[in-house]
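Input chain follows. Return C-alpha cells only.
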Amino acid sequence: MTSLLTNHIFAADPSAHVFDGRVYVYVSYDEPYTNSYDTMSCYHALSSENLVDWVDHGRILHLDQVDWAISHMWAIDANFWQGKYYLVFCAIDKVTSTFKTGVAISDRPEGPFTNLGTIEGVEWGQDPSLFIDGDVPYLVWGARGSILIGELNPDLMSIKPETIRNLSDQVGGYEGPFLHKYAGRYYLTYPALDNEVWPQRMCHAVADSPLGPYQDLGVFIGVYPGNSGTIHGSVFEFKDKWYSFYHSAWVSGSQACRSLMLDEITYDTDGRILEITPMESPLGREVPAVERIEVHLDAAVSDRAGGRHFEAKVHIDHGHVSGATGAGYLSGMTRQEYGFSALLQVGVPREYEVWLRYRSEAEHVARVVAGRHLFYDGNQNQSYDQYINRGTVFPSTNGVWQEILIGSKDFEFGDHLIRFSNSHNLPANDRGIEVDRFRLVAK
C-alpha cells in the first residue's frame, strides 16, 4: 500500500486533487539537509496520470514573490474555482509577526502562481485548505490550538465571519486540516497528538455538513518507525480508488527534510478509514513503486519560477495552439547570450539527463550551462565544467517541435540554474531557436 514518492526533492504537507483526469499534488519545500522548518520558503507542484510516472513542475511560488510575508512558507492547498486555479498558503506576516493565509492565482494547475494578498477575517491562518462544495468555497485552517472552518466570499479574498466554526471541541487536532467528500458525507482529516506526546498521528472525523458538527472517527495512521514528527496530508479519489498522501522522514532521517508517502485507503461499512501501516518499501504493496520522475522547466514562465529571461520574447499560449507543452514558448534568441535560465531544485544528489524541446527553421549552435553560479563557482573563478555542452548543434526541425538530448549531469543537493544561450549573432532574417522547455529525467 505504501510508496515513497519523492527523493529528488524533500517535500511535505501534500495536498492532492484531480483535474481533468490527472493527479496534482501541491507541496511545501524542505531545504535539503536542514534541521529547521524556519527555512521553508517556496512551494512545488507535482502531477501524474497513473501514480507511477511523476512530473515535478518546479517552483510555483516563492517568499520573494509575496510582498506581505517575511518567512515560514508552511502548508498549502490548491483548487479550481470559477475558471482559475487558486493556491492558499500561509506565512509569517511582516507587520503582525503572526501567520496569515495568502491567496495566489494561476491559469494552469501546475502554476506558477501569482500572489493576490491575504484573506481578510482569518486570524492566525496556518496550514489552510481550500474545499469547494458545488458552488460554495470553504476555508479550513489551524489557529493556535484549534481547527477552524468558514465559508469564503466568491472572490476568495475574505471569509464570511458569521459562518466561522471552531471545531476544537469536536476534534483533537490543531493544524494540517483537509476536507474531502465520500459517500455523501464530509470527512475532515488532521494530525493530532496522543496526550500531547509527539509524533503526530493522522485522524479523521465525519459530518453531514462542511461546517459540522463532526463525529470523531479516530486514528487511521498511527505512530510508525519512519515518522517525521509531523504527518500532514490529504485524501483523494482517482480511477475509482481512494488514496492518502502524507510525508515521512524515511529518506533523509531528518524530521525537517521530508519525503512524500502514498497509500491506498479503504472505508469500512461504518464509514471509517481502515488503519494504514506505513512501510519504507513499496514491494508487495498495493500501490506500485514510482518508476519515473521527470522535472519539467517551462521556458515561458521560468522567470517566475526562479530563473531569468535574457532578452528573450515570451509567447503565452495556454491553449497550446503553437504546440508548446506548457504556458507558451520563448523566441527572439538571435544574438549572442540571448536566452533564459531555469531553476532546478535537488534533494538527494543524483544524475539527470537534460533534454531541450525546441523548434528551428535552420541549423544553429547554442550553449547549455548548469551550476549554482552559472559561469562562476563560489570563489568567482570561471569553470567550464558547468557546461553540459559547449556548442551543441541544433539541427533544423523544419518548424516542428522536437526534443534533443543535451547530455547528462550529476547535480548536488540545493539550487541549480540551467541556462540556454545563443552562441552567435544571427542575420536579421534568421528567427533562431524557439524553446518550449527543459525536461530532466532522473537516472
